[in-house]
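re: ur question from earlier - yeah i can do the single chain one, its not a big deal. heres the input i used so u can compare w yours
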Amino acid sequence: MKKILIFIAVLFLGFTAVACDQEGGGSKEELKVALVLTGAINDKGWNQKGYEGLVAIGAKYDAQTAYNENTQAAQYNQVIRTYAKDGYNVIIAHGTQLSDAVKEVAKEYPDIKFIITSSDRTAKLGNGSNIAGVLADGVEQGFLMGVTAAYIAQDQGSKKVAAVGGTEIPAIKTTIDGAKAGVAYVDKAIEVLSAYTGSFDDVNKLKEQSITFIQQGATVVMSTANAATKGAFEATKDQGGKAIGANSGGLFGTYPDNLSASGNVDMSKALLLVLGEIDAGKFKGDNYIYGVKEGVVSISFSTTEAAIQKVKSKVEDVQAKIAKGEIDVQKIYEGK
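and the output i got, formated as C-alpha cells:
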C-alpha cells in the first residue's frame, strides 16, 4: 500500500509539472538576440542607437546578445545567416539596406524572428510571418527638426534654412521631407535649401555642402547622415550659423555654441516594445510604427547654445500637441 501511495504521489506531481508548463509556468526558450549594423556602434547616430537598443534588450530580458558592426554590403547575407545557424532566435537588421538579405535568410529559417528597422514609416517590411518592420516615424522626427529650424530662423529674422542628407534612401528622404513640412508649418515664407551627399561616412563632403548653403544665405543647417552628420556641425562652427542634427544629442558638449537641437529616434524603446510582443507571444510579421505618442520620437535641446533657449518652449508645445493628437503630422506631410 505504501508503494502504491508513493507511485500515485509521483504520478500526480508529474501531471502537475506538465500542466504548469502548458500554462506558461515552465521555463521559456533562452532569448538570443543578434544585431547587424552597417556602421560603428559609437557613431553618435543611427548605429549607436541600434546598439543601445540591443544593450537594453540584454538587460531587460537577460538575453544573450551579439552584434556585427561596419557590415559591408557583400557581407550582409553571410553575417545574418551565420547568426541564424548559431541559434539566435531574434535577428535585428538595423536599416533597410539589409532587407533583401533578411528576406532570403528568413525563408530558410521560418522559426527565427527577424526585425528590420527604419525611420521610414511608409516602409512595408513585414512578411506576415517571421519578418517585422520596426518603423520609427522619421516624418515626425524631421518635422520637429524643421519646426525648430523655422523658429530659430524667425528669431534671427532669416528667411532661409538648409537640410542636408546622406545617401538618398527612403528613411533619410522621409526625414528631410518631414523637416521641410515642419518649416512650412511655422512659416511658409522660409525657403529650405536641400541636398543629398550620397554618403553616411564622408564628413567633409557634408561639410562642403553645408558651407555652400550657408554662403547662399542659410542661417540654420539641419542634417541627417549617421556619422557624416557632423559635417554640418563643423560647417556652422567655422562659417557661422546654427545646426540641428538627427540623433546627435551626444555631441552637444562638442559643439556648445552652434549645435542647437537634435531630432531623436529612441530605438531602444522601439525595439523593447517589439521584444515585449515577442515575449508575450504576440509577435506578428507586421510593420510596427512608433512616433512621438509612444515616446520613440522626440526633440532634445542644447543647454548652452543661446539661440535655442529663445524658442525651446514653442517647440515643446508643438511636440506636446503631436503627442496628444492635436497636430497630425502625417496629414500635414501629405498636404491634407
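Residues 2-27 have pLDDT under 50 and may be disordered. not sure if urs matches, ping me
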